[in-house]
From TrEMBL:
Organism name: Streptomyces parvulus
Matching Pfam families: Dyp_perox_C, Dyp_perox_N
Keyword list, A-Z: Heme, Iron, Lyase, Metal-binding, Oxidoreductase, Peroxidase, Signal
Organism ancestry: Bacteria, Bacillati, Actinomycetota, Actinomycetes, Kitasatosporales
Domain of life of the source: Bacteria
Protein name (database record): Deferrochelatase
Record-linked InterPro entries: Dimeric_a/b-barrel, Dyp_perox_C, Dyp_perox_N, Dyp_peroxidase, EfeB/EfeN, TAT_signal
Dyp-type peroxidase N-terminal domain segment(s): 71-215
Residue ranges, annotated region (Disordered): 215-246, 297-326
Cofactor note: Binds 1 heme b (iron(II)-protoporphyrin IX) group non-covalently per subunit.
Reactions it catalyzes: heme b + 2 H(+) = protoporphyrin IX + Fe(2+)
Keyword Signal: yes
Cofactor needs: heme b
E.C. number(s) listed in UniProt: 1.11.1.-
EC class of the enzyme, as a word: oxidoreductase
Length: 424
């Protein structure tokens, strides 16, 4: 998936400060002078001796803002590593306990995203690191509203997703009252945030499921490039861009929500989360042409089979010498095009995952698919229904877990995420 969203802007004061609390913005011994381009790709690399006085590289000093119109982790560039975790409220916990929990979580997220230690019980895992583009995002599942006596505030858009033919869902790893997305460009920073969130849950909520993922590191390619998934395919070329005029309308709930929407969701979004296992042994048996026909794009550069470069518009009418479509009728890229789905749009911001091998040596690997939209009934659902009816990729993947979460707008200074719902 491409980094189509607004790039991180490093904290302008971070490099000038000698430190941020205990997590000082200092390079570690052996750090390299990594120079990042505007979109996060490496434009130069120089090895040089370092000392404790050298500033942290731009990778570590990059900082996302906790407070804002929207929550972090939606339009921020994809990070190197991520954790997805769902909680259920504990027996007897209700609206009061949920409000106290979201207040704790928001304060912890604000601190950690600024490169500071957690407020209490800090584990020192990220003591030597900068913010490293950390984002922490919070959402509410369908069941949350019944548990807190807020059924009347549940949005229509949060109705359960329909069943799909490709579903092989593990209910124990699906849904949940509360959902947290953590992403960072350093694995220790991400793990540190995960442990802090789990500690903060205390007796108010219990862990339901957790999933861990990764992406390509910034600077790993000679120039900024759309990322590849574990099938080796460039993934997410047509992701909508914040620069597009209708981006906010398609991805975020408007400030004045319409019928069936709730005021507390203003400037929020809906996250569909799917654990999609890739049947890599079967996929890797295909020839290069076979793989390209399944996707509808060249594997080397992501260009459509009809010609051009990665961002060239796909010519769905182009045929070969025999009169057959150059882009097969059931090609994944053809079926998922927004103009073939009534304009359905979503920001895809996934992580790859690998959870080892089963007893037969088959890899348990694939995609932690996360997509964002203003209304999943107009975004994810129609596209997935169409894929169900004839996507060539379907025989090489299996949807094993699923969740849908309402992610409210960002918290203003002095507020916590979800305050308008829980105290409204």
């Amino acid at each position: 998936m491409p980094d189509q969203s607004t790039p991180h802007v490093p904290d302008p004061e971070a490099a000038a400060r000698e430190g941020i609390s205990r997590r000082r913005l200092l390079g570690t011994a052996g750090a390299t002078g990594l120079v990042l381009g505007a979109a996060g790709g490496a434009t130069g690399y120089a090895a040089a001796p370092t000392s404790a006085a050298d500033p942290l590289t731009s990778l570590g000093s990059a900082r996302a803002m906790f407070h804002g119109k929207h929550q972090p982790g939606i339009t921020d560039p994809m990070q190197v590593c991520g954790h997805l975790v769902a909680f259920d409220l504990a027996a007897g916990a209700g609206r009061k306990e949920a409000a106290a929990l979201l207040r704790r979580w928001s304060d912890t997220a604000r601190r950690l995203m600024a490169g500071e230690p957690a407020g209490t019980r800090d584990t020192d895992v990220a003591r030597d690191s900068g913010p490293s583009s950390l984002t922490v995002t919070f959402g509410f599942g369908h069941s949350f509203f019944g548990r807190t006596g807020l059924d009347g505030q549940r949005p229509v858009a949060l109705d359960p997703l329909p069943d799909f033919s490709s579903d092989h869902l593990d209910r124990n790893r699906s849904n949940g009252d509360l959902w947290v997305q953590i992403g960072a460009d350093d694995s220790l920073v991400a793990f540190h945030a995960l442990r802090a969130i789990q500690h903060d849950a205390g007796s108010a909520a219990r862990l339901r499921w957790q999933m861990n993922g990764f992406n390509r590191s910034p600077g790993a390619t000679a120039r900024p490039m759309t990322t590849r998934n574990l099938m080796g395919q460039i993934d997410g070329t047509r992701n909508p861009k914040p620069s597009e005029a209708d981006f906010d309308r398609r991805i975020f709930v408007p400030e004045e929500p319409g019928k069936g929407e709730r005021d507390w969701m203003a400037n929020g979004s809906y996250a569909v989360v799917r654990r999609i296992r890739m049947l890599l042994d079967d996929w890797e048996k295909l020839s290069l042409k076979g793989q390209e026909d399944v996707i509808g794009r060249r594997k080397s550069d992501g260009a459509p089979l009809s010609g051009g470069g990665e961002t060239t518009e796909m010519d769905l009418e182009k045929t070969d010498a025999s009169g057959s479509p150059v882009v097969p009728i059931n090609a994944h890229a053809r079926i998922t095009r927004p103009d073939q789905n009534g304009g359905a749009a979503m920001v895809r911001r996934p992580f790859s995952y690998h959870d080892g091998f089963d007893a037969d040596g088959v890899p348990d690997a694939g995609l932690l698919f996360i997509c964002w939209q203003a209304d999943p009934l107009r975004g994810f659902v129609p596209v997935q229904r169409k894929l169900d009816r004839g996507d060539a990729l379907s025989q090489f993947i299996r949807h094993e877990a699923s969740g849908l979460f309402a992610v409210p707008g960002g918290a203003a200074e002095g507020e916590y995420v979800g305050q308008r719902l829980l105290e409204g």
